[in-house]
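Continuing the series of single-chain predictions for the mutant panel. This is the parent chain; the variants come on the following pages.
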Amino acid sequence: MRQLYPEIEPFAVHRLAVDTLHEIYVEECGNPDGVPVVFLHGGPGSGCREDHRRYFDPARYRVVLFDQRGCNRSTPRGEVRENSTLELLGDMERIRERLGVRRWLVYGGSWGAALALLYAQAHPDRVLAMILRGAFLARRCDLDWFLRAGVSRIFPDEWTRFEGHVPEAERTDLVCAYHRRLHGTNHEERIAAARAWSRWAGRVTTYLLPESEEEEDIKKTICQVSIETHYAYHRYFIRENQVLEEIGRLPRVPVLIVHGRRDLTCTLDSSWSLHRDIPASVLKIVREGGHLASEPVMIDALVHATDEMAEKLS
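Parent structure:
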């Protein structure tokens, strides 16, 4: 079974002012002369971690990682003003131009997969190939699965806690209810709502991993959930089913899709739909895999995927 590549430090770090409000953290790792790849993290609202560098052979890839607006090391942290999908796509182009990259491999997981697809549809001539993991298509049915009638039937105990955080009268639209609390002025209410949302999301996404007792960083949690609810409330700033309706705008490049069959956050039917609609795409279903890239079987599949793509693009 494949493991992550050894730990590596960036050979360059940039802070890119993309407008008068936002500054984006960008780092480059690996081989400056290697195949350029841009890594798109999930959430929305999470950010890149050191381990994300290690899914790529540092001898063969020039790995570009950046924290999306308001996320992690980008500033202002947790900011939702001037923070939309269209602006994220513009940031990617600014980064590409700043780094002098003509075309790059676009790698995205979960929300990052949706962003990767939207970028490739908007800028097909800038894409060498795509690797998508645990694809999220940002449709109403995808949001309802996670926040209405779907995975709640598998985790009824945790769902009761999550749903019970808001009055019964507001439970028909939990996105709206949580958004109101996260973006209100009552600080204690913001903390409680962020914790409740984070607990629910964490229980569903990590159920295949051993339970851990991580020390809570409440400021980080509030920032992350604020952005996540901001995007969910605005339906990710795209039309319903936009990704699949505009699938014909994708460039004719290699597309490799990896999805865990046990993924309860973004269900396999999303990646199946992509595979069905993208000619010559390859779908690798990981039988024992869930949603997180950090699961051992998913690491194995994803490192195989990046190695395979490096061979194709070399």
